[in-house]
Specification:
The protein is an alpha/beta fold. It has helices at residues 26-37, 50-63, 87-92, 111-121, 138-149, 165-177, 194-202, 247-254, 263-278, 284-291; strands at residues 12-18, 41-47, 67-70, 84-85, 97-101, 104-108, 130-134, 154-159, 185-190, 206-209, 235-238, 258-260. Strands 2-1-3-5-6-4 form a six-stranded mixed β-sheet, with helices on both faces. It is globular. Bound molecules: nicotinamide-adenine-dinucleotide.
Length: 292
């Protein structure tokens, strides 16, 4: 019998486990895509923190779900509960997508690929380019690793002197010593070193804000104190998509630079997960028309 677009006995559930989660755009995005393609799946968000995570994963195994997403605070905590990690998860030490391959739970991280795919959609190829990257948390790490895997030539990471600084140093080490596909040079500098920041941006093609500076509670603030560091031929990207135009992107537009917000990264990380679960490409243009 034809699937009538309602949940029936054959519907496959895809979960999202995070907290807080009610603001997430992922359920709407995936369910619109399932419906558009006539795929018999349903995507639902569940309020799950670190304490519940182990039980939830056990439950997923018992139910033999095709896959699920995890978000904060579970992206790193989930690692020990999975059977295998793809390169994207291994290099970043974090997972946002799990695919159940015949009972084996494989962890992936599609954030970095979502970022580079979105740049491609904007006509920008990172191969051979230089990036100045602010931050070394989850989003910034995914961007750094994937850019290195895809052949960027140099990444200068600027990190604040907080608990993430050591991660910046470790990210640079991994890029310099372990990623062998391309010869990529990674440098780490304290974000407080404005002179060095100026120098690195001047020789970069791409400037990336990989921090939450620019969204609540830091809305209206930019990681770039001196907007004269920006110039028209610089590509400036932000991981933030709420607000759509952060202070940094406003500064970029004011000097005529290309400004790209985090919405495309979010959309493409979801599209890559969707394709792994269903074997079909997400109808991205349709989702954009409907949601954004
Ligand atoms: P995180 O907590 O793992 O990392 C935060 C980073 O920001 C760290 O490097 C920290 O040092 C830095 N930081 C924090 N406050 C700062 C300040 N005042 N000045 C300078 N640096 C500061 O967080 P995350 O998971 O990497 O998320 C960061 C942002 O990326 C969030 O806004 C999140 O919504 C966004 N994000 C977007 C996508 C997407 O698909 N577009 C995906 C993941 C995360």
């Amino acid at each position: 019998m034809q699937n009538l677009g309602v949940i029936d006995g054959k519907t496959q559930l895809i979960g999202l486990f995070a907290t807080p989660i009610r603001h997430s755009l992922s359920p709407t995005m995936h369910n619109l895509a399932f419906k558009k393609l006539g795929l018999n799946y349903a995507y639902m968000a569940f309020e799950v923190g670190n304490e519940e995570l182990e039980d939830v994963i056990k439950g997923m195994r018992a139910l033999n779900l095709r896959g699920f997403n995890v978000s904060m605070p579970n992206k790193t905590k989930i690692l020990p509960y999975l059977d295998e990690l793809a390169d994207s998860a291994q290099l970043t030490g974090s997972v946002n997508t799990v695919v159940n391959e015949n009972g084996r739970l494989i962890g992936h991280n599609t954030d970095g690929r979502g970022y580079t795919r979105n740049l491609k959609e904007h006509g920008f190829d990172i191969r051979g380019k230089k990036m100045t990257l602010i931050g070394s948390g989850g989003a910034a790490t995914s961007i750094a690793m994937q850019s290195a895997l895809e052949g960027i030539s140099e990444i200068s990471i600027f990190a604040r002197n907080d608990q993430f600084y050591a991660r910046a140093v470790e990210n640079a080490r991994i890029i310099n010593e372990e990623i062998k596909q391309f010869s990529v040079k990674a440098n780490v500098y304290p974000l407080e070193n404005q002179e060095q920041l100026k120098k690195e941006i001047r020789s970069s093609d791409l400037l990336v804000n990989g921090t939450g500076v620019g969204m609540k509670p830091l809305e209206g603030i930019s990681v770039i104190e001196d907007p004269t560091l920006l110039r028209p031929d610089l590509i400036v990207t932000d991981v933030i998509y709420s607000p759509l135009k952060t202070k940094l992107l406003q500064q970029a537009e004011a000097v005529g630079a290309t400004a790209i917000n985090g919405l495309g990264m979010m959309l493409w990380q979801g599209a890559l997960a969707f394709e792994m679960w269903t074997g079909q490409p997400m109808p991205v243009e349709y989702i954009q028309e409907q949601m954004f």
